[in-house]
Design goal:
The complex is a heterodimer of chains A (about 450) and B (about 160). With about 450 residues, chain A is α/β, with parallel strands linked by helices. Chain A has ten helices and 25 strands. Chain B has a three-stranded antiparallel beta sheet with strand order 1-8-9. A two-stranded antiparallel sheet of chain B has the order 2-3. The chains are: A alpha/beta (about 450), B alpha+beta (about 160).
C-alpha cells in the first residue's frame, strides 16, 4: 500500500524545517510527510558542542517547540529510513517496505561523517561528532576518561576539543593540514588559534594524522604518521562530512560532490528538490557550484525549495560560505573567499594584526569590491561587511575605514550609505542648498 | 508589521534614543535607577551612526525576510507571525553570533555580560517605541508598513 502526500521532506534539520515552515506559510492544507532516521524531534546539530561543553541542557538542543509537527500539520515519520526514490512512480521506499507517494519531494539528508582509512575503528570509545547519539555516548565515556584525541582541526574538531578540555580532559587535536581551520581562515588566524588552544592546555598537532589505533576492546592510544604515540581514553572523529547523496543516486539525479541544484533548489528531475549539506549549488562569490555545508545555507535552501514546491517562484539570489565561530573567548567570523597572502591571484588582501590583543581583520578585494573577509577578536556588526559584499559595493574609497573597530553605516560614504539604506529612511525635508524640498 | 524609519536630516546626534532604549529595557524603567543601580545595566538596542555633521539612529528593521532568523542555530530568533516583530529569546540563545554575521544593518548587538545578543523588540508592551516617543527632534518615526503608511510622524 502506498500512502500519498502532497509534500514529502526527507531529513530533519535546518533545511527540512526551512522547507516545512515555508510550505505552511503558502499552503495551509496540503499534506506534508517528514521522513527522518532519528527518532528525536528536530534538534540543532550546531548546538552539539555547546551541549558537550556543559553550556546548555538537553532541552535547549531542540530547535523548535515540542508541538512543531502538530502545529504545522506534519505527519512525522520519525525513526524511518528512506532507502530508495522512484522518480517515475514518484514514491519513496522506506526500509520497512512502506511506500510514500509524493507530488513534490525535498532531499535534506545532510552529510555523513568522513572516516579515516585506518584499522581498529570498531574499538570502544571511538566516536563521530555529528548527532545527538554521538554526543550522549561521548558524554557517558567522559566519566572515566582523562585524555582525548580529536582527529580533525576544522570548526567541529576545534569545538569538540574545546568542549572536552572544558570538561576536564587533556585534549589533543590532530590535523592533517599544516595549520588548523585552513579552509576557513588564513595563516595569521590559524596561528592565533593554535596559540590560544595551547595556552588553554589543548595540544595541537599539525601536518599529521593517525596511522594506527591501539588498544584492547577500547581505544588506548593512537600512533601518528610521524611515529608519535598519544595515550588516550577516547578518539573523536571530526574530519568533516561528505554529502549524503545515495537517495539522489537512486532517483537518477545528476550528482557532482553533492546533488546538483539550480537557484530554485530543483534537482535534475522534476518535482525533486534538494538543499543543505547534501546539495550543491552556486556560490555567488566564488562563482562556482559547490557544497556549502552551513546551517544558514541549509535553512534558506529549504525555504526556497518550499516556496517552489508550493507553486511559488523563488530563487536563491545570493549564497556563499559564511562562518561565525568562537573558541574559548575568541570570536571569529569568516565570509566569502579565503584568499591566502602567499597566493592572492587577482585579489588584493588588506589586513591588520595585533597578536597580543588577538585582533585580526582582513579584507580580500577584487576590483575594489569585498570578495571575502575575516574578523578575529572584534566582530560587532560584521553583517554590514556581508551586505557590502552582497551588493558588490565599491569600497576602494574607504578601505581605511573598514578597519575602524566601530565601523558602521556612518563610516560609509554618503551616496553609497543612503543607497543601502534607502528603504529605511524618510527622505529629507531640506535640500543641499537649504531650500525646502517639494 | 512595523519598523522604525530614520530622518537623518533632523537627527541632532544627541544619543537620547540610546539612553531611552536602555530605560525601556531596564527592570525599573526609571532613568536614574536604570543607569546608577541596575547591575548589569540594560544595553541599548539602537545605535547612533555618526559621520559629522550627519548622524542618524539605526536599529533592527524587523525584515520581512530576516536573515538573522534563518541563520539562528538555536531557534532563539523568530519572526512573530501576528505582530511581524523579529523576536529574540535570550533563554534559548547560545551566543553563536550567526545573527551578527548576517544582519545587513548591524542591528544585533553582543551583550558582553551574558555573551548572548540583544536587539530591538519595538518596545513590546509599550504604546510606542521609546526611541521614537523620546526623540526630541522627531528624527525617528514608527511606520506600520501593512497599513501602508507612516503612523507616527510628528511632522505629518
Amino acid at each position: 500500500m502506498t500512502r500519498q502526500f502532497d509534500y514529502v521532506v526527507i531529513g530533519n534539520s535546518a533545511g527540512s524545517v526551512g522547507c516545512i515552515e515555508m510550505l505552511r506559510s503558502i499552503d495551509r492544507s496540503g499534506s506534508i510527510a517528514l521522513i527522518a532516521e532519528e527518532t528525536r524531534r528536530v534538534y540543532s546539530r550546531a548546538l552539539l558542542p555547546y551541549y558537550l561543553s556543559g553550556g546548555i541542557d538537553l532541552e535547549k538542543m531542540y530547535y523548535r517547540k515540542a508541538d512543531f509537527y502538530e502545529q504545522l500539520k506534519v505527519t512525522a515519520l520519525l525513526g524511518q529510513k528512506a532507502v530508495h526514490i522512484d522518480a517515475d512512480k514518484k514514491e519513496a521506499l522506506l526500509s520497512g517496505n512502506e511506500r510514500i507517494g509524493y507530488k513534490k519531494l525535498l532531499l535534506a539528508t545532510g552529510g555523513r561523517p568522513l572516516i579515516p582509512p585506518v584499522e581498529g575503528l570498531d574499538r570502544e570509545n571511538i566516536f563521530n561528532f555529528l548527532n545527538m547519539d554521538d554526543v550522549l555516548k561521548i558524554e557517558k565515556a567522559l566519566e572515566n576518561a582523562q585524555s582525548a584525541v580529536v582527529l580533525g582541526g576544522g570548526v567541529i574538531g576545534l569545538m569538540a576539543a574545546e568542549a572536552l578540555s572544558k570538561r576536564g580532559l587533556q585534549a589533543h587535536v590532530v590535523e592533517l593540514a599544516g595549520r588548523v581551520l585552513a579552509p576557513v581562515v588564513d595563516e595569521p588566524v590559524s596561528n592565533l588559534l593554535k596559540a590560544l588552544f595551547i595556552e588553554k592546555g589543548v595540544q595541537v598537532i599539525t601536518n599529521n594524522t593517525i596511522k594506527e589505533i591501539k588498544g584492547g576492546s577500547a581505544v588506548e592510544s593512537v600512533v601518528l604518521t610521524d611515529g608519535v604515540q598519544i595515550p588516550c581514553d577516547m578518539l573523536v572523529l571530526a574530519m568533516g562530512v561528505a554529502p549524503r547523496v545515495e537517495l539522489g543516486v537512486s532517483a537518477g539525479l545528476k550528482i557532482d560532490r553533492g546533488i546538483l541544484v539550480n537557484e530554485r533548489m530543483e534537482t535534475s528531475r522534476s518535482d525533486l528538490y534538494a538543499c543543505g549539506d547534501c546539495a550543491q549549488g552556486y556560490d555567488s562569490v566564488a562563482g562556482i557550484s559547490r557544497v556549502i555545508p552551513l546551517w544558514p545555507n541549509a535553512y534558506l535552501g529549504g525555504r526556497i525549495a518550499g516556496s517552489n514546491m508550493a507553486g511559488g517562484k523563488r530563487e536563491n539570489i545570493w549564497s556563499t560560505s559564511m562562518n561565525s565561530m568562537h573558541f574559548f573567548d575568541l570570536c571569529l567570523i569568516a565570509a566569502g573567499l579565503n584568499v591566502s597572502a602567499e597566493d592572492p591571484g587577482g585579489f588584493t588582501n588588506i589586513s591588520r594584526l595585533d597578536p597580543q590583543k588577538k585582533y585580526y581583520r582582513k579584507f580580500t578585494l577584487r576590483e575594489g569590491r569585498i570578495a571575502g573577509f575575516i574578523l578575529a577578536g572584534k566582530i560587532s556588526r560584521a553583517g554590514i561587511f556581508v551586505n557590502l559584499m552582497r551588493t558588490k559595493a565599491d569600497v576602494s574609497q574607504f578601505t581605511d575605514d573598514l578597519f575602524n573597530e566601530d565601523f558602521g553605516y556612518g563610516s560609509i560614504p554618503e551616496e553609497l550609505r543612503w543607497e543601502l539604506l534607502k528603504k529605511d529612511l524618510i527622505p529629507g525635508v531640506v535640500n543641499g542648498d537649504g531650500r525646502i524640498r517639494t | 508589521m512595523g519598523k522604525i524609519l530614520i530622518k537623518p536630516e533632523v537627527c541632532i546626534g544627541c544619543h537620547l534614543c540610546e539612553i531611552w532604549c536602555v530605560v525601556a529595557h531596564s527592570r525599573t524603567k526609571d532613568i536614574l535607577k536604570a543607569f546608577l543601580l541596575e547591575k548589569p545595566a540594560a544595553l541599548s538596542r539602537v545605535i547612533v551612526e555618526e559621520r559629522l555633521p550627519v548622524t542618524f539612529a539605526l536599529q533592527c528593521r524587523h525584515c520581512s525576510e530576516p536573515d538573522c532568523v534563518f541563520a539562528c542555530i538555536s531557534g532563539a530568533l523568530y519572526k512573530d507571525s501576528v505582530s511581524g516583530r523579529v523576536i529574540h529569546d535570550p533563554e534559548q540563545c547560545v551566543g553563536c553570533y550567526s545573527c551578527v554575521l548576517v544582519c545587513p544593518y548591524g542591528g544585533i548587538f553582543i551583550d558582553r555580560e551574558n555573551k548572548k545578543v540583544t536587539k530591538c523588540d519595538l518596545c513590546e508592551g509599550f504604546e510606542k517605541p521609546y526611541c521614537v516617543s523620546h526623540c526630541p527632534n522627531g528624527a525617528l518615526v514608527y511606520a506600520d508598513q501593512e497599513e501602508g503608511g507612516v503612523i507616527d510622524d510628528p511632522a505629518v
